[in-house]
Structure formats: C-alpha cells, structure tokens
Amino acid sequence: xxxxxxxxxxxxxxxxxxxxxxxxxxxxxxxxxxxxxxxxxxxxxxxxxxxxxxxxxxxxxxxxxxxxxxxxxxxxxxxxxxxxxxxxxxxxxxxxxxxxxxxxxxxxxxxxxxxxxxxxxxxxxxxxxxxxxxxxxx
Length: 138
Fold this sequence. Notes:
Structural class: alpha+beta
Number of strands: 5
Number of domains: 1
Binding site for Zn(2+): 61, 96, 99
GO molecular function: cytidine deaminase activity; identical protein binding; zinc ion binding
CATH class: Alpha Beta
EC number: 3.5.4.5
Number of helices: 4
Binding site for substrate: 50-56
Shape: globular
CATH topology: Cytidine Deaminase, domain 2
Helix content: 25-40%
C-alpha cells in the first residue's frame, strides 16, 4: 500500500497511541482489546478503547469511545483529521457497522481511517465514504 509522506507520518504518529489505548481496553468477556487514536484539528490525539459489558449491547467500541470523548472535550464534529484503529489479536481490523454510522456523522466523508492488526504490513486505509457508502443521513 502506498501512502503519501504526510499520510505515513500521521499513521506513524497514531499507531503507538492506538496500541497504548488497546492496552487500556476493558474486555473481560471477549478478550479482544481494540484501541483507537483520533487526530483532532489542533493536532491533539484522543484515545479510545473498547469497554465491554456482560450485556454486549451495552459495550462501547474503541472508535466510538474516541469520538465521544473528543466531542465531550469540545472538538467539533467534522473537524477530525484522521483515526487509526488497532487490534492486536487479529491480522487486520475493520470498524463495526455501528461505529461506521457514528463515524460518518462525526467525521468528514474524506477523513482517513487506518486499520491495523498484529500484522502491520496488512494495514488498510479507508475513508469514511468507503467504509459506509450510501450511509443514512438526515
């Protein structure tokens, strides 16, 4: 996969943050930690991790945790520069449908999302539009 120099720099900056976020995951039921690192318009990085509940529907994914934290801290929807999602127990990760729907509302359609598992060479770059074409919008 070929990234621009700027995209590669963003990827390299976000990856260790997402790895650190995955180490904070609360996943006693699945043992499937996921971390996300969100780059804000002012170049802050906001981490998110999955937080499980025995009633799985109440679980929150890393992507939504990062986005919700950013919004709670006063960052504007649509202002984010990039997100990286990391899961150490699979070769490659991809956001779930619920996260994709939230991401399309809070991130620009052209915002990059880097997805990576324990095989960094198998990472995948997406845009929000590619993750959820034909998304529900209001």
